[in-house]
Amino acid sequence: MEHPQRETMEFDVVIIGAGPAGLATAIKLKQISPNLSIVVVEKGAEVGAHILSGAVIDPVGLDRLMPEWRTDTSCPVKTKVSEDRFLYLGPAGSMRLPNFLMPKLMSNHGNYVISLGDLTRWLGIKAEELGVEIYPGFAACDVVYDQAGTVIGIATGDMGISREGTPKESFTRGMELHGKYVVFAEGAHGQITKQVTQKFGLRQNCDPQKYGLGLKEVWEIKPEYHKAGFVQHSFGWPLTNDTGGGSFLYHYGHNLVSVGFVVHLNYQNPTLSPFDEFQRFKTHPAISDMFAGAKRISYGARVITEGGYQSVPKLVFPGGCLVGCAAGFVNLPRIKGSHNALLSGILAATHLAEALSQGRSQDELTHYEQAWRGSDIGQDLWKVRNVKPLWSRFGTALGVAFGALDMWMNSLIGLSFFGTLKHGKADYESLKPLDQVKPIMYPKPDGVLTFDRLSSVFISNTNHEEDQPAHLKLIDPSIPVNVNLPLYGEPARLYCPAGVYEIVYGDEALKLDPRFVINAQNCVRCKTCDIKDPSQNIVWVAPEGGGGPNYMGM
Asked: Where are the beta strands (DSSP E) in 325-446?
């Protein structure tokens, strides 16, 4: 059926994604040029609904964007880091690493423990007060080009389409939002960021992007265990030496603790389950006592970029640019990206405002591309550029030690023994076949400290309209059972942190073959499947706007 033509709205700047980078871009543009018309589209039901991070924030970006935040009582950034601790975990014990051995840039002195979702909501309010239009619940699904192939806008998805692809009574046609420039601030591995990346060859001269899967829970613990501003990072158990990752504990708010776990997605064992590794982590003797009598109140998961300096693509193309995690500005060893997201929004906005003031539109913002490496963002990422490749090459024990040495050298003399190392192959290429690994067996959850996926998804407030087209698409529906299952045991059922994928076995007597089942309604939009599937057969696209998780305080 042919749908009616989309209505079109015109703006000076269209921004995709109401995260820290997108909102910083909008706010800075309005600060420079109040008369600009700016729109931000956000696929979550509200600003902050899909935001998930640790988070300990370096306030440098916030200081530059809105220095008055420190005296604004409505700002949710309240808890200053009071103690900073690093642990190496073994199966039954732990070793604290002296802080003086850690490179200075790893120190969290002067940083704040926050809910990034709450900060994003606050930034959204500030943006609207400046006159920015924000449209939550609208998923950008396509890039709009002119006849010359220049980006001139985006299209939001149609709503009210049945799973068969036919319009329902609630059908509403999507809109086209046109702008003189379009800013892509979708976060890691965004759907339409992938479109422009491929069309304009933005990754031709950089390393493959590397990713980690971050899982997080928020707990309310007993007051006697709570230390406001306490920050602890750890690595080691339960992950093996050849599997990268780490964990965090952040105390903030009123007896709240963020506990999280990151698994680098270049892991090799297809029977590894990041979700279950996270649950096991909480049972460690150095961790579990804190949860006595505690209550788990929220859960979420999402991928983070880990490639750093070498993996940053070209940031500009005719009609638009990339900012924040869409550009890959996360600093892996610091486990921080929000400061660079804010700084990139500020930097992009400065060059956008200059271009618009000159009467330009829909060209390449070459000065933004040239500026980022010499900015605080480039300097931040340059110093840690070898940490990820060293970790991948040498494993956790040696890799972390070499990474620390390299950070010291870069900080003290601005040089590295290693030069600039390459990342090598993409994460989906790393899995070994089943017959080359030792299968990992996980204990059943106890429902007190450890949990299953479905009960976790429930407290993420994830909801999707069930009668809509599948947003998790298989390029070849036969591959999961015919290729991935015999070769890898179908790892999608394990790497997905939300129980979206499963293999259902038939009745041998009736000669029913196993089936690959997609429970799309469970999806928390982490994008792991689109990244880690060894056959690159799963494609994540945005479902109806407003669906997915609705994280509170994450």
From this structure: none
The conformation of residue 350, written as its DSSP 8-state character, comes to H
Shared-domain flag, residues 126 and 184 = yes
Whether 256 contacts 277, CB under 8 Å? no
Domain-embedded: residue 389: no
With respect to residue 441, please indicate whether it lies within any of the assigned structural domains: no
Mean pLDDT per segment of 10 residues, for the chain of length 554 residues? 82 98 98 98 94 93 97 96 96 92 90 96 98 96 96 93 85 93 97 96 97 98 96 96 96 96 98 98 96 96 97 98 97 94 98 98 97 97 97 95 94 91 96 97 97 96 87 96 96 97 77 86 96 97 86 88
Got the DSSP string for 235-262? EETTS-TTS-EEEEEEEETTTEEEEEEE
Residues 242, 321, single domain; the answer is no
Residues 38 and 122 in one domain: yes
Does residue 546 sit in helix, strand or coil? coil
191 shares its domain with 242: no
Q: Which domain holds residue 260?
A: 79-113+211-305
Let me know: does 152 contact 146? Beta carbons within 8 Å: yes
In a domain, 420, yes or no: no
Of 172, 205, 208, 176, the C-alpha closest to 189 is 208
CATH number, position 91 = 3.30.9.90
Decide: residue 511, CB within 10 A, 0-12 exposed, 13-18 middle, 19+ buried: exposed
Query: For residue 138, what are the CA distances in angstroms to 16, 287, 298?
Result: 10, 40, 24
Q: Is 127 inside a domain boundary?
A: yes
Q: How far is CA 177 from the centre of its chain?
A: 25
**How much is the pTM?**
0.95
Angstrom distance (rounded) from CA 2 to CA 468: 17
Which residue from 13, 121, 99, 88 is spatially nearest to 352, judged by alpha carbons? 13
Instruction: Write down which residue in 333, 354, 382 finishes a domain.
Output: 382
DSSP string, 81-119: --EEEEEEE-SS-EEEEPGGGS-GGG--TT-EE--HHHH
Rounded to whole angstroms, the Cα distance separating 29 from 352 reads: 8
Last residue of a domain, one of 305, 331, 348: 305
- CATH number, domain of 527, equals 3.30.70.20
Give yes or no for a contact between 303 and 213, defined as CB atoms under 8 angstroms apart.
Answer: yes
Task: Take residue 535 and report the two structure tokens written for it.
Answer: 């056959």
Q: Tell me, yes or no, whether 374 and 468 share the same domain.
A: no
Which of 527, 541, 523 lies closest to 187 in space, CA to CA?
527
Q: Provide the domain count of the chain.
A: 3
C-alpha closest to that of 20 among 43, 68, 53: 53
